[in-house]
Automatic annotation (TrEMBL):
Annotated membrane topology: Peripheral membrane protein
Localization terms from the record: Endoplasmic reticulum membrane; Microsome membrane
Annotated Pfam families: p450
Organism lineage: Eukaryota, Metazoa, Ecdysozoa, Arthropoda, Hexapoda
SUPFAM superfamilies: Cytochrome P450
MF term (GO), any: heme binding
InterPro entries assigned to the protein according to its UniProt record, in alphabetical order: Cyt_P450 (IPR001128), Cyt_P450_CS (IPR017972), Cyt_P450_E_grp-I (IPR002401), Cyt_P450_sf (IPR036396), Insect_CytP450_Detox (IPR050476)
Keywords attached to this entry: Endoplasmic reticulum, Heme, Iron, Membrane, Metal-binding, Microsome, Monooxygenase, Oxidoreductase
Primary gene name: Dsim\GD10274
Protein's name in the database: Uncharacterized protein
Binding locations of heme: C449
Amino acid sequence: MAFVEICLVLATIGLLLFQWSTGTFKAFKDRDLYFEKPHPFVGNMGASALQKASFQKQISEFYNRTRHRKLVGLFNLRTPMIQINDPQLIKKICVKDFDHFPNHQTLNIPNERLVNDMLNVMRDQHWRNMRSVLTPVFTAAKMRNMFTLMNESFAECLEHLKSSQPFAAGENAFELDMKVLCNKLSNDVIATTAFGLKVNSFDDPGNEFHKIGKTLSFSRGLPFQKFMMCLLAPKVFNFFKLTIFNSENVEYFVRLVVDAMQYREKHNITRPDMIQLLMEAKKESKNNWTDDEIVAQCFIFFFAAFENNSNLICTTTYELLLNPDIQERLYEEVEETQEALKGAPLTYDAVQKMTYMDMVISESLRKWPLSAAADRLCSKDYTLTDDEGIKLFEFKAGDNISIPICGLHWDERFFPQPQRFDPERFSERRKKDLIPYTYLPFGVGPRSCIGNRYALMQAKGMLYSLILNYKIEASPRTTKDLWESARGFNIIPTTGFWMQLLPRK
Ligand code: HEM
C-alpha cells in the first residue's frame, strides 16, 4: 500500500474513532439541561480516567463548579449522566419516587460469571427478592456473632505488629505502610466471615486465598483497565467474549463456597459466618436460588468490602496522626472500654458503646467518602417537580443518574470548613443540625449499602486494638496532601499510607 493510502486509512480510522468517542455527547442538547463541554473518550472525567486525580477529586470539583444548579449533565467517559446537586431532589429520586429509579446503572458484562448475580448488579424484582433475603443476614444480632470471628483476625494482626517491632516496647516507633497491613487484615476477615476459611496473611502472606483475592479488584491493575474498557466500549468487550477476571480464579471461590456448604450440610456443622447465614436464608426463601446466586453474595465482599474496609482504617489513622488531640481523646475512650471489659475480649456491644469512636469514623467517612458518587437508572419516565409543583426536568427510561456524594460532603454550606477534620459535627448535640441527604457515605434509600454495619464493626474493632497499643504518628514518608496524591477510585496515596507506630506500653 502506498504511503498516501496508509495515511488515508489511518485518517478514516481516526475519524471513525473520534465520531464514536463523541457520539453520545449530543444527549442533553434538546433537553434543556446545562452541561460542561466533554472531551473525546473521557467526557468530563479526563483527570481521573488518565490517573491524574482521584475520582473523588474530579467529582468534587465538577460539583463545585455546578452546584448552583439543581441538575447538571455529566459525561462519565462516554456515558451521559444527570447529576443531582440538590439534597431535596436526591430524596425525591432515591426515596420518595424510588419506584422510578430502582436499579443501578447497567453493567453490561454477560460473560462475567458471578458479577451479574451480585446484589448490587441485580435488578427489579430479582433484586427485591435477594435484598429481602440478605437484609436479615446483616442485622445487629447476626453481626454480634460474626464479631467473634473478626476478633481472632484483629488479635493475629496485633501479634504480627508486636513481633515486627524492631525495638523494645515503649522505646521507639516503627514505620509501616498502613494500607499493606489493612489489606492483609481485610483479606483474613473476609476469608473467615464470608468464605468460612481461616487464613493468616500476616504469618503466611503467600496463602492462596490472598493471592487469588488480590486479582479480584476492579480498582487497580489489569482488571481496572479491562473495567474501563468495558465501560467505554461494552459491545467490543463482549464481542471478543472478554472477561474482567480470570475464570480460574473465580472458579476457586465458587468451589470454596459450594464445597463448604455441602460439607456443612453433610456433617451438620455450624459457624457464625456468611456461608451459614446464606444457607439458612436459602432454606427459608421461596425462591429457588442457584449455587452461583448464593456464591455471588459472598463474592460481593471482594468488591464492596475489601478495599473499602481497609481504606476506612487508613484514612482514619491518617487523620488521627494529623490530629493528636483527637487521637488522645479516642485513646481515653478505648482505655475506658478495655477497663469495663475486665480482661474479656472486645465485643460487638462494647464497640457500639464507644460514642467518640463513632464520631471519629463518621467524620472520616464525611471527609474521605470512599464512594465518590452513587448512581441510579431511570426505569419509567418521570417528571421531576420542585416543592411548588414546577417542572424541573423530564427523565426518560434509560437515563443514568449520579449522586455526587463527595461534592456534598465537601460543600461548606452543609459542612462548614469542610477540610477540617472535626468529629464534633457528629456529637449528640450537633448531629441534629446535619441537613438531611447531605451526608451519604453509604448511599441513600432502599438501594443503599447493605454492609454498613459490617464495615463499621471491622473498622472500629481494628482501631480499638491499634489505638490501645500504639500511638499513631507521622513518619518521614507520610503523605503531606492526601487529596492531591490520591488516584483512581480509592483515596490511596500513590506512594502508600506510610505512618509510624509508637508502642504505648
Ligand atoms: C466503609 C465501607 C463501605 C462503604 C463506604 C460502602 C459504600 C456503599 C455505597 C455508597 C453504596 C451505593 C449505595 C447507593 O447507591 O445508594 C454501596 C452499596 C452496596 N454495598 Fe457498600 N460500602 C461499604 C462496605 C460494604 C460491605 C462491607 C459490604 C458487604 C457485603 C457492602 C455491600 C454493599 C452492597 C451489596 C451494595 C449494593 C446494595 C444494593 O444494590 O441493594 N458494602 N456501598
